[in-house]
Amino acid sequence: MLWVEDFESGLGLPSDEGGLWGFNNTNPHSGTYCYSHVPIADSQSATWTLTVPPGATTIQFWHAVSSEPTHDKLEFLINGVVKLTAHGTVPWTQSAVFNLAGATQVVFRYSKDSSVSTGSDAAYIDDIVFQVPDLTSPRTNNLNGGTNGTAITTGNSGGASGSPFTNVVGSPQFSNANPFGGSGLVATNGVAGADTHIDWQALGTVGDALYLRVYLYWAGAIGPATFKPLMALLGPTGVVSKVWMGNSTLKFRIATGGGTTAAVTGNAVMPVNQWVRLEFCYTIDSAGNGTSEMWTYLDPESAAHDDYVISPITAWPGGKPRTAEFHLWRDSGDAGRWYMDELAVGPDKLGPAPSTVSRRPRATVGASRAAHRAATW
Ligand SMILES: [Ca+2]
Ligand SMILES: [Ca+2]
Ligand SMILES: [Ca+2]
Questions:
Q1: 145-163, pLDDT tens digit by residue?
Q2: In this structure, which CATH number among 3.40.630.30, 2.60.120.200, 3.30.499.10, 1.10.1740.10 belongs to the domain 139-353?
Q3: 21 CA distance to ligand 1 centroid (A)?
Q4: For tag attachment on the chain, is the N or C end more exposed, with fewer CB atoms within 10 Å?
Q5: Under CATH, which number does the domain 2-131 receive?
């Protein structure tokens, strides 16, 4: 799929502007905004480092420059190597397609020599296009590679845990409270009353179906009195859907867009103080129409669901999903919260987490029965 940054609705990717680059509405290539830098002095430079979407293979972008020829210039760098230089009067021009070859960041830099300024003395960037491979295998994360009590970040959430999250909002934490399967770590909200979520971006799928899985542990008081978000799916033009815990019903509903209007509501009432597994499937065709499905497993390792619902054909806003947010609710009075584990997204039904299948509960049996159990277990 293509990941497009057109600067029209905020930046969709983490970046470091050093306080020098920002949205510019005087000279966009498309729409209302492009990206440019504040005026800089002779011998200074303005550098913008942009994070590449996970797995992106190529980048192409539009640029314009108005500067002193040769001496004041825009440069574009991948892995520290200059790939493009532009100076003088350059109207909006599309770059070549550059191979990212595993690069996780790219750099745009406008720099000036020791004297003379010409024209508007600036560089402009718009309509950056990344080619991102479609999601052909699941992204999963069991959080077990983290450190209890520390913040979950994009930098520490991968490795032994699985696929790193590509965006973090608020204060999610690794926790060893209520470990799923008896050991390892889970995710919780580090700050009562504040929303927090851990996200995967760049979720292009080959077909029209996107599957999600979350293991959930509802701890403490029965709440919440108002709708609380469990998940959100975002497309290129806005929120596709949110999954909410109903107000006092303890049932999850899948809503159309960012509001709480249900496309479908589950029948299962969420139990307190035990792990459950929830799976979802969104089917969205090129016209934005499709169904949502939700499976509830009160035994999180079971292959047999306790509840299944499917929505009518729904007109989904926002476009094809490309970001999945997993939200961690925690009551402002700290009376209750939920924990999450074994998060996954993929192109096919996900099922129980593979890492837990081998952790078969071991029954304590008397010696006389042990031989029979060993033969038949
Ligand atoms: Ca634009
Ligand atoms: Ca100059
Ligand atoms: Ca875990």
A1: 999 999 999 889 999 999 9
A2: 2.60.120.200
A3: 15
A4: C
A5: 2.60.120.200
Q: Decide if pLDDT at 373 tops 80.
A: no
Using the mean position of ligand 1's atoms as its centre, give its distance from the Cα of residue 5 in Å. 8
Separation of alpha carbons 341 and 365, rounded Å: 30
Q: What is the pLDDT of residue 183?
A: 92
Q: What is the mean pLDDT of residues 293-307?
A: 96
Q: Residue 44 CA: which ligand is closest?
A: 2
Of 6-20, 21-35, 37-51, least confident by mean pLDDT is: 6-20
Start and end residues for every CATH 2.60.120.200 domain found in the chain: 2-131, 139-353
d(CA 73, ligand 2 centre) in Å: 9
Q: Which two tokens stand for residue 183?
A: 């050991």
pLDDT the model gives residue 273: 92
Pairing of strands 105-111, 238-245: unpaired
Instruction: Write the DSSP string, 331-376.
Output: -TTSSEEEEEEEEEEESS---S-HHHHT--------HHHHHHHHHH
pTM: 0.76
- Residue 119 Cα to ligand 2 midpoint, Å, equals 11
